[in-house]
Fold this sequence. Notes:
Blueprint: E1 3-7, H1 12-23, E2 27-32, E3 47-49, H2 55-62, E4 67-70, H3 79-97, E5 100-105, H4 128-144, E6 149-154, E7 157-159, H5 167-171, E8 172-175, E9 178-183, E10 191-195, H6 196-207, E11 214-218, E12 222-224, H7 226-235, E13 239-244, H8 247-253, H9 258-265, H10 279-285, H11 294-301
Parallel strand pairs: 1-2, 1-4, 2-3, 4-5, 5-6, 6-11, 7-10, 9-13
Antiparallel strand pairs: 8-9, 10-12
Helix pairs in contact: 1-6, 2-3, 3-4
Amino acid sequence: MKTALIIGITGNFGAQMALALREQGWGIRALMRDPAKAPGWLQPDCVISGSAQDESAVLQAARGADLLVYAANPQYHRWHQQALAMLEPAVRAAEQLKLQLVFPGNVYGYAPQAEPVDEQVRMNPPTDKGLIRQQMEQRLQRASEQGARVLIVRAGDFIGPNTTMTWLDLMASVKGNRVRLKLPHDDQHVHYYSYLPDLCTNTAKLLNGPLLDWEVFHDPGLAVSKADWQNAFQTMGISARMSAFPWWGLRLAAIVSPLLKEVMKMRYLWQQPVIMKGEKMIQRLGSDRQATALTGVIREALLK
């Protein structure tokens, strides 16, 4: 049995990636600062106590594994101080042990543009956070030249069941069969989301096939406008009330909150489109690709 080490198994991507890999026959182990927070399905002897920032702990946890999934993130307002430093122990372990490393990319490295972005488009980060993500990927590319094998799957805003602190968690409230959705964008904007069960299942399937030492795939995801939400709810026979997200409240709170100040910097993503083109993944996986329609996403992510 192949074994995957998950760093960040309590996060949205890490948790779903662990489930997707387990479903496809992988053994799962997790490196955790607090083993008491491990998912209930994970056997205690598969939980390794240690910090992802401790290079020796990461290296020890990764020995004997076939895959390292890096799903950790510092607090949003601490990216400048911690993001690159947190990544480094995992990268070094992958280099030394010749491991495949999976990293969830995002859209921050690209400026808004009218056309979907494919894997050949060079990054041109419009913000400091985008620059940090670019630097992280540059470090990963160097690792792929020094013994590691790297798979980046670039995704949009996460949507999924049992998530915490995603935009959908902030936008939506459900009472019975009635939904209220506070949209952070206007009627014309098209926003790019990734449904986590699809993203992670497809990533696990990519790992079953041949991969270069450095591979980047964009998730086809879901490009959704206000009209798309309305049509999906109507198709499902659900009463949905749409209103504007209260950005003014975040703007006021950002005066005293470093975290919300960083959130406000990224508001442009709700004003101009940054959508990934997923044709490479579509062609690679073909009919084996999992793709859930927006109605299915609503059913699984909001109504359960």
